Amino acid sequence: MKVRLALEEKGLAWRDHKVDIVEAQEQLEPWYIKLNPNGVVPTLSHHDGSTNVITNSADIIHYIATLDEGNSLLPSTDEKSNLMEKLISLADNIDLQILSYARHPSMEKSEKVLNTRIEKSLELAKQHPDLEKSYKICAQRSLKNKTFRVDPEHVGNIEKGAREALSFAEQQLAHNSFLTGEEYTLADVIWTVILARLELLGYGKWISEEASPALSNYYQKVQSRKSFTTAQIQNQWWKK
């Protein structure tokens, strides 16, 4: 979602390739592991004379922002650039993966997904010795998610860090239209997605008008942007 939103706000032409990470577990297929050794989404493949493959959403949105064409997603001053990077780091450090598994409406379903992911990773590690290291990393990550999502202390620490990050964002928005001032930047890209995911996970009260008036107003504003729809920002559970 962060990457799609960055591409939409940048105003670039792009094409998506959906990777089924739940049923088919396509992110573990050898062709994908060779693109992204961590076996996670997203992956950006940029074709412009040569092909550049970038992984990790924070790295990808930074890459998108450096492209010459399209709208600027970078602040106009060094001071604001430093603030933007701090806001991106605060958002990126919120472990939404574990929170998502911890708050999933069906613990049984998500347990099955994680078990399948672990089993498939270990089986493919045997079948593809050249990719064994990547597959073991994938298995370890899924085991971590499975273990820590039911650890109240661990989840509580993630929630505490998220609240602290939200508090900092609230301060920045007290007198500004966007997170670094009056310019829409990468900080707004990543925080739009963070707020949408927190709402999906049932933390809407954290960004309510009563708890965080500036964030609440900001969230309503970014939801009204065309990009929120075209980038398919998800703030409700997928129906299936």
- Helical percentage: 55-70%
Mind telling me which CATH architecture this is?
A: Up-down Bundle
- As a percent range, the share of strand residues is 5-15%
The radius of gyration is 19 Å
Q: Give the termini distance in whole angstroms.
A: 19 Å
- Work out the number of β strands: 2
**Apparent shape:** globular
Please summarize what this structure is.
The chain is mainly alpha-helical. It has a single domain (2-230), classed as Glutathione S-transferase Yfyf (Class Pi), Chain A, domain 2 (Up-down Bundle).
Care to describe what's here?
By secondary structure, the protein is mainly alpha-helical. It has one domain (2-230): Glutathione S-transferase Yfyf (Class Pi), Chain A, domain 2, CATH 1.20.1050. 57% of the residues lie in helices and 5% in strands. It has helices at 2-10, 30-35, 57-66, 78-92, 96-102, 107-127, 132-148, 152-173, 186-200, 213-223, 226-230; strands spanning 43-48, 50-55. A two-stranded antiparallel ribbon has the order 1-2. Strand 1 (43-48) and strand 2 form a beta hairpin. Helix 4 packs parallel to helix 9, helix 6 packs antiparallel against helix 7 and helix 8 (152-173) packs across helix 10. It is globular, with a radius of gyration of 19 Å. The two termini are 19 Å apart. The mean pLDDT is 95.
